[in-house]
Design goal:
Length: 506
């Protein structure tokens, strides 16, 4: 490899994980700094709704990190590459092996394409054999990325405080829901959280700072505190009373992760490695990052307050739920497919009706029988599903790949069609679609058709369908009536519609 590093502003910067929590925020900041950005994604529709996706200087390359040819093509001509890939959400217990395999493919491809450097966001923590499996996996990825001779800049961060991050959501929900907590001993472990805005500053600034090439740098906020103190700071920022926190030595990471799963939107599969990592002290061991890339860093209280303000205003750029692949639709033509279809005419334009459909879920709810939705969400949480607590990233708009409570958006064709795929625990596969058609025989009227499809798995799937079918008339009828009412109110209809919500055959 040549020892010369190309001018990063003269050639594209590759960003992997551009649809994820950090990557989705990093791309616009790189553009603002004058870089051309090439986004490497498996599914380009996940970026279609991002406001920066059509900005000058953005190139979207479709491929898979599993395929070396795809990775080489994405890296070709790039001066630097951000590796922001983590398989914890997707691969579950196999995430460490999976992360190593993907890093090996990426490292070899970067060497073959003579990339100037790789930038990796790793995990802050103690060195040695006492690292949790999660932090040890991050160290392993660092080594693999550097194994082919490409210089690697590693930025190691502890908890990232930002609206929508998994760690922040765990902290927020625990504090809001539990005035009294029984916790493991890790509640006394020291940590050095950092605001997501400061993480993004370091990621962008390192490209223009040659001293960071080939270096491993610790990044953290200006304060070191225990997780107990962090929880109390969150409680103060939320205007809540002081939390009573009792630490006991008998709670294992597995029990802690199950408790986190039940109380917060985070699944036990994601929570367990995070809980295991909390036993490791995560404090910066040097200050080269702050010396080489100076910035006034946000305090923990300021970072929390900014995150809470973003949540209240709905200004959440990205969320931890954005990560991971979107599975394709099941083969609805094969096997037994149960269909329940409902229809209503709305005295409003298709645009207003579609907007009302897109507001379903989250804090607004589903317009009818909210107790049934909450009951279904609670049942789902108890069996390991996401439940309703994931909410939604934006209160008004949806995009491909967004989470809506325990649904995932799999198709957005505005203003004609919205498709959701169920991610709750089910003995089968479920999809819900909304299709809109403007009636030519009744100008100003839009026909909205909602269809539920279910492919059962075994006898349990058959029993499930027939058990929930009687509730559809309550849930779906009320949901469509609520959508109609909201669309007509916002669309300024002179005469509210009296059209009934009809159940269709087939």
């Amino acid at each position: 490899m040549s020892a010369l590093v190309p001018d990063p502003r003269a050639t594209p910067i590759l960003v992997t994980g551009a649809s994820g929590y950090i990557g989705g925020r990093l791309v616009p900041r790189l553009l603002d700094a004058g870089y051309e950005v090439r986004c490497f994604v498996r599914e380009p529709r996940k970026l279609a709704s991002r406001p920066w996706a059509k900005r000058p200087g953005v190139e979207i390359v479709v491929g898979d990190l599993d395929r070396p040819a795809d990775v080489r093509a994405a890296l070709r001509g790039c001066s630097a590459a951000f590796y922001l890939v983590h398989s914890m959400i997707v691969a579950g217990a196999e995430y460490a092996r999976r992360d190593r395999e993907l890093a090996e493919v990426f490292a070899h491809a970067a060497a073959e394409e003579r990339v100037g450097r790789i930038v990796y966001l790793g995990g802050l923590g103690e060195t040695g054999e006492n690292l949790s499996a999660h932090l040890a996996s991050r160290r392993d990825v660092e080594s693999v990325l550097a194994s082919t001779g490409v210089p690697v800049t590693v930025l190691r961060a502890a908890m990232i405080i930002g609206a929508g991050s998994a760690s922040f959501e765990i902290l927020r929900y625990l504090v809001e829901r539990l005035p009294v907590m029984v916790t493991p001993r890790w509640v006394e472990t020291r940590c050095q959280p950092i605001a997501v805005a400061d993480v993004l500053h370091y990621l962008v600034a390192c490209l223009a700072e040659p001293r960071t090439i080939g270096q491993t740098l610790d990044i953290g906020g200006p304060e070191v505190l225990s997780y107990r103190e962090l929880m109390q700071t969150m409680a103060e920022a939320r205007g809540l009373g002081k939390r009573r926190i009792l630490s006991v030595p008998i709670l294992t990471p597995r029990l802690s992760s199950l408790w986190i799963h039940l109380v917060t939107p985070i699944s036990s599969r994601v929570a367990r490695p995070l809980a295991e990592g909390l036993r490791n002290e995560v404090v910066c061991r040097d200050d080269r990052a702050s010396q080489w890339m100076p910035r006034s860093l946000a305090t923990v209280r300021a970072a929390i307050e900014q995150s809470l303000a973003n949540l209240r205003s709905g200004d959440v750029e990205t969320a931890w739920t954005d990560s991971g692949p979107i599975p394709g639709d099941p083969d609805w033509a094969g096997g037994s497919v149960f269909v329940d279809r409902w229809q209503v005419d709305v005295n409003a334009s298709a645009e207003h009706v579609f907007a009302a459909v897109c507001r379903l879920g989250g804090k607004q709810g589903w317009h009818a029988a909210d107790f049934l939705w909450r009951l279904r969400g609670s049942m789902d949480r108890w069996v390991g599903g996401p439940g309703l607590r994931r909410g939604r990233r934006d209160p008004e708009h949806v995009a491909f790949g967004d989470a809506l409570d325990f649904w995932r958006v799999t198709e957005v064709d505005e203003p004609r069609r919205l498709a959701l795929r169920a991610e709750m625990r089910l003995p089968g596969e479920a999809q819900m679609t909304f299709e809109l058609e403007e009636r030519h025989d009744a100008p100003g009227t839009t026909r909205l058709t909602q269809t539920a499809r279910f492919v059962p798995r075994g006898l349990g799937g058959l029993a499930y369908w027939y058990a929930v079918l009687p509730f559809h008339s309550i849930v779906f009828r009320g949901m469509l009536a609520g959508v109609r009412r909201q669309a007509e109110e916002r669309g300024g209809a002179s005469e509210p519609s009296t059209s009934p919500v009809r159940r269709l055959r087939g």
